[in-house]
Amino acid sequence: MLSVVNENGTTQSGSLMDDIVREGARRMLAAALEAEVNQYIAELAGERDEAGRRLVVRNGHHRERTVATAAGPIAVKAPRVNDKRVDGERGERKRFSSKILTPWCRKSPKISEVLPLLYLHGLSSGDFVPAMEQFLGSAAGLSPATVTRLTKQWSDDHAAFQDRDLSGSDYVYVWADGVHPKVRHGQARSCVLVLMGVRTDGSKELVALAEGLRESTESWADLLRDCRRRGMRDPELVVGDGAMGLWRALAELFPQARHQRCWVHKTRNVVNALPKSAQPGAKKALQEIYNAEDRDHAEKAVKDFERAYGAKWPKAVKKITDDADELVAFYDLPAEHWVHLRTTNPIESTFSTVKLRTKVTRGAGSPAAALAMVFKLAESAQARWRAITAPHLVALVSNGARFERGVLVERKQEAAA
């Protein structure tokens, strides 16, 4: 029910607009809960006792509770179900459990999603109650103890993620990068090592996330070794920055995977080795390589770059010629996938929005806790990741199909015949 509106357009609980939004959300939630119960009872209408009476019937409503949602606090009175059926194996009464509003729910999943972001911005557990109360109009379902339990759950979730079975996941493409969120880890140069993959259906998925040294072969080897232990198979292509210790570790643990150097990192490295006057022209020449029509044209553009800049700036040119094969590897794959495979942008774009605080105060705790919070942010972002272009072609790549100039020319089965 809406509050009385004051002369200045406010109400006792805030603004009239917020009250209208909350009331609309309350009514929609109530209607959804009623519909869910009605469907449950209708589906079991045939379940009757020996006297012909229904075993599943309505039984009023539960006690009202307040749930914190993105629309603000909402008072809910969930309908109650009297289910008299008995589980034959366990001998226990069956119970109705709402999929919309679980029995102990006091906050929506969206609220839980925003908590790690606020925590990483510097809010301690004691700051959440006043901060969320100001934003949502109520602190229902939140308390310092609740936040403390959540941070423990984040660590448990990350540990389970890092120990899950990978044998059923075929990652055809993998991006690898070491990102430096502004969180103090155990070592001064430590960062978060990230693996993100593309499954055979074209969807993107976070593969692994662990603390380590970006330039250390051993750090990457530890991560890759763990992935191999859990059943991960060789991807078709791994995309990463050439400065990392990844490549030697990859050659040892996933020797069948082809290597693709990130063009964003490579362009930056080359340009930094040139005087400012030469940089605009060099950038355009590099674009001619990674935006070429096909591999043949890209290799020609590499030679053109060498002729144009090799005499004056051999060190800059060497950064391209020494890695030429690994800079144009993506041209042997479907043309629709090229835009995704030239760079590690899928990782960088995700973590560029993770604005972590610069100092660890009483809120952040240990490096492990900070890593767990980074994991929760990445996990939340994953729900919004879109599949790569032409996802149906990923399975063909996984099955050994051959592409020339970005076009399918031979399937593995055809080659065998």
UniProtKB/TrEMBL annotation:
InterPro entries, per the entry: Transposase_mutator
Listed Pfam families: Transposase_mut
Signal sequence range: none
Transmembrane portions of the chain: none
Record keywords, A-Z: DNA recombination, DNA-binding, Transposable element, Transposition
Annotated family: Belongs to the transposase mutator family.
Described purpose of this protein according to its UniProt entry: Required for the transposition of the insertion element.
UniProt-recorded name of the protein: Mutator family transposase
Species for this entry: Streptomyces durocortorensis
